[in-house]
Amino acid sequence: MLRTPLCKTFGIEWPIFTAPMGPVTGPELAAAVSHAGGLGIMSFGGNPPPVLRENIRRLRSLTDRPFGINVLLRGPHLPFPVEAVIDLCLEEQVPVLSTFWGDPTPYVARAHAAGVKVIHQIGSVADAQRAAQAGVDAIVAQGLEAGGHVAGEVTTMALLPRTVDAIAPRPVIAAGGIADARGLVAALALGAQAIMIGTRLIATPEAYAHPVYKQKILAATEDQTVRTTLFGHGWPDAPHRTLRTPFVERWLPEEARGSEQRPDEPRIGETRIGGQPVPLLRFMGFPPTPDASGDIESMDFLAGQSVGLVQEIKPAADVVRELVEGAQRLLSQLAARD
Ligand SMILES: Cc1cc2nc3c(=O)[nH]c(=O)nc-3n(C[C@H](O)[C@H](O)[C@H](O)COP(=O)(O)O)c2cc1C
Fold first, then answer.
1. Where along the chain is composition biased (Basic and acidic residues) (predicted)?
2. What is the pLDDT of residues 297-317, one digit of tens each?
3. How far apart are the first and last CA of the chain?
4. How far apart are CA 212 and CA 238, in angstroms?
5. Residues with CB under 6 A from ligand 1
């Protein structure tokens, strides 16, 4: 009952996608979700093309199932052109190219010519229509409650059916606020052909998130996130949903400060990108990975409102299995009701 036409198109067993989550979604998490029958997506993670190539090869060594690579089209400042990342993905013939924050139009025909499917995440019906016109294979409709950078102003419940209607028969994948089987069934009922889950998967052993980050995800409730531009150093004026930590509460009254990108902001720690040490200045929007050191509490704990539903760290395969089994049970129960 759960399988949708999109499952066939993308060669997957279950309509469940990993949300790309920057450095948190490395090869291990993506492979675990693909291996469990969903579609794992690894973020390019700010990595330069040679490092990304290594990561793609590692992901391929971990699973022979389809997977995706996510690229932010005009997101954070990068020391190399985003085109180089896309060229690499096409050269490597990754099964799916996932894009966000920008216009996918220039890349769709080239991707298709290379045998690569394209999915693009949007936050409004107008953007969905533009991406559909560009010929993408599926649209990810991201609601306001989503974690990470948030493209629009409309909740999943309202955006999803409108997007489905606007671009039918092209398939829509629902993102934002979904963390359990109830959310999966609701998304299908609203017309989605799959879900994309992020926040839930941070609390897995495979997620490349700092232990403090995982603990914060378990402890937080749905009212403890905020959509802000505070962590704007390196990617200014881009709204993102993050946990309301004491650091965030302290600076919210001066939210605009983060996007000023002052070079003299204090250094709060260090991390590694592509194997290289990178200093972290205050307000840099880089969620803490196991490589992060320093003042972890002042870093960017990106998370969505679904965080309230996340209470246990468990393997990604268990998350996928519980979503599938729970949704099947729920659908049978609903069908059996008088
Ligand atoms: C920690 C984190 C990092 C994210 N980074 C990215 C990213 O690099 N690229 C992207 O397309 N979306 C990113 N997102 C947004 C997700 O694609 C997706 O919209 C969101 O996770 C769905 O909401 P949920 O977290 O409630 O499941 C990120 C989300 C989170 C939680």
1. 253-270
2. 999 999 999 999 999 999 999
3. 20
4. 25
5. 19-22, 24, 43, 70, 72, 100, 121, 142, 146-149, 175-178, 196-199, 287, 302-304, 306
pLDDT at 105: 97
User: What residues have CB less than 8 Å from 37, skipping those under 6 apart?
Assistant: 12, 13, 14, 16, 65, 320, 324
* Domains of the chain by residue range: 5-206+312-333, 211-306
Query: Helix, strand, or coil here: 40?
Result: strand
Closest CA to 2 of 337, 336, 325, 333: 325
pLDDT of 275: 87
Q: Distance (Å, rounded) from C-alpha 246 to C-alpha 307?
A: 17
* Candidate from 16, 21, 42 with most ligand 1 atoms within 8 A of CB, to mutate: 21
pLDDT digits (tens, 9 = 90+) for 253-290: 999 999 999 999 999 999 999 889 999 999 999 999 99
Weakly modelled stretches of the chain, pLDDT under 50:
none
